[in-house]
């Protein structure tokens, strides 16, 4: 699989500035960051969260962080949030490899909640719908295209926690 067709069409249609960076096929965020020559704080990871009666939300965090579900509940005013199962991820993102979803909720009819860590960054790097490419784009360009709700939703993981 190559760059997600849905994403490519959208970026080209909106005249988005982006660069595709190929790498060998890897699966963990840490490996993707290393192969892409970025830190795991620069690499975005996408999580899908389900609201019991009200659809799904897309949450975008630095790969080095974990989602603070209580902070997300507080920020959204939605209190019945839970993580989406891997089976549901396949249904929600049918044109993506599991774990490689791009952070463009509008392509999947989901609002996007972006951690504020990225608002201080010059660029954002994210998976391109597969396990062998990432997309790099200016943060301001990503914000223009996605219009995410920005808030503090992550718990920073200490380096030693990543190796445990």
Question: What are the salient characteristics of this protein?
Answer:
164 residues; alpha/beta; YbaK protein; 6 helices; 27% helix; 29% strand; globular
Give the helix tally: 6
- Average pLDDT confidence is 91
Residues in β-strands, percent: 25-35%
Number of structural units classed as domains: 1
- What integer value in Å does the Rg equal? 15 Å
Assigned CATH class: Alpha Beta
- Mind describing the biggest β-sheet? 8 strands, mixed
User: In percent, how helical is the residue content?
Assistant: 25-40%
Instruction: Let me know the number of strands.
Output: 10
CATH fold type:
YbaK protein
Describe this protein's structure.
The chain is of the alpha/beta class and 164 residues long. It has one domain (5-163): YbaK protein, CATH 3.90.960. Helices cover 27% and strands 29% of the residues. It has helices spanning 5-13, 29-36, 69-76, 86-92, 139-146, 159-163; strands at residues 19-22, 43-51, 56-62, 65-67, 81-83, 112-115, 123-127, 133-138, 149-151, 154-156. The strands form two sheets. Strands 1, 2, 3, 5, 6, 7, 8 and 9 form an eight-stranded mixed sheet that branches. It has a two-stranded antiparallel sheet with strand order 4-10. The radius of gyration is 15 Å and the shape is globular. The model has no long low-confidence stretch (mean pLDDT 91).
Blueprint of the fold:
Elements: H1 5-13, E1 19-22, H2 29-36, E2 43-51, E3 56-62, E4 65-67, H3 69-76, E5 81-83, H4 86-92, E6 112-115, E7 123-127, E8 133-138, H5 139-146, E9 149-151, E10 154-156, H6 159-163
Parallel strand pairs: 2-7, 3-6, 6-9
Antiparallel strand pairs: 1-8, 2-3, 2-5, 4-10, 7-8
